Amino acid sequence: MSATANIGVIGLAVMGSNLARNLASREGNSVAIFNRSYDKTTALVDSHPEANFIAAETIDEFVDSLKSPKTAIIMVQAGAGTDAVIELLKERFSKGDIIVDGGNALFTDTIRREKEVAALGINFVGAGISGGEEGALLGPSIMPGGTKEAYKTLGPILETIAANVDGEPCVTHIGADGAGHFVKMIHNGIEYADMQLIAEAYDLLRKAGDFSPNEIAEIFEEWNRGELESYLIEITAEVLKQTDAKTGQPLVDVILDQAGSKGTGVWTVQSALDLGTPVSGIAEAVFARSLSAQAAQRAGKPELPAHAQTWSVEDKPAFIEAVRRALYASKIVAYAQGFDAIRAGAKEHNWEINLGEVARIWRGGCIIRAQFLNRITEAYQKNENLLSLLFAEYFVSAIDGTLASWREIVAMGALTGTPTPAFASSLSYYDGLRAERLPAALVQGQRDFFGAHTYKRVDAEGSFHTLWSGDRSEIQTS
Fold first, then answer.
1. Which entry of 114, 184, 200, 331 is annotated as an active-site residue?
2. pTM, entire model
């Protein structure tokens, strides 16, 4: 087979097939495709005869069809499947060739793989690809890591298939080795928080406001015309408008209330714990899914007392606006925590990540695309060393306009027994950030008492330990 393809795709499930179709639709691209099952390869070619595909029956045919530097994107199941394909390519690729993992890999696996592949002189790129099946076909947000050398070849190709906002492709070189997959992981963590916050807003409107799903859909459509404009708000309205064909009920009432999880949200929380950076809104979103999935526990619960008040909503427009403001403020916190985690990860792994560029490429194609990502981009362009998004002038003003409503909604949720874990944790984080003094001083005293962990003082340098003894104590300097 003659070498005529400038890019190849291995793995032709829905995401791989759509990405291959996207690549083949762009002028100048010729796309080699390979799947372990050749039937899937031929099916894709037969379904899209207009596409500039080169179908390979074997891995050797696939590799032989690629021009140098040979570039292949792996779109198979993360884990052992990815490792197996990498091994096949390592045996056949040469120095300067490029292996791209486009799946949702754990970034530490990407770091390991890049080190192993780089030892052979081959470039390895872990690329986060966001946008789901539609994005893969029409234009995703792409977050490639790896070497700058690899990006010189890969970047122009990815720019042709990425989403485009204001004339700018939603792709940029994120950083070395696992940086791309790390940023995609945090993206997915923010996605978890965003979805949970929207769900809590829906729950408040339904239970306290007594709105029907169709009425709430109209509320979300209105919100999507303002500062909450985003892909997730848009599709939420569509979900709430759906009627179940079998029962005639709103579809949302027929769907089992047990949420699934594919792991990236959990990875985000675990990584943040390792980095010592709080992502409480994301964590609560992960835990909310975990609680929803506790089928036996929820079904077997006794009549648990509530002692809850009744939430009487007399001014419905004012209530809708209060929920909107609480949602907006909590979303800002979720994004702020996510960008804090990216900064912490970059510092830990010596990645040069431009946070403003990350916000820019998230404006289109990806699941969390939203209007206010423009404001995030502007904030980091103005001050790349910004300690927190919450300190940027725009977001200080935005939060200021929501606080009364935010506090009211969280308080009334607690008083009426309506769970709002992500709303409440986001507000607590904000208050913790603005507090002049936290009760951590007492925690340090406790730790020193039972474990001699020492503490620092506000009036002296160094570490100190107290010899605790009844009513008397003696301070030692260490």
1. 184
2. 0.94
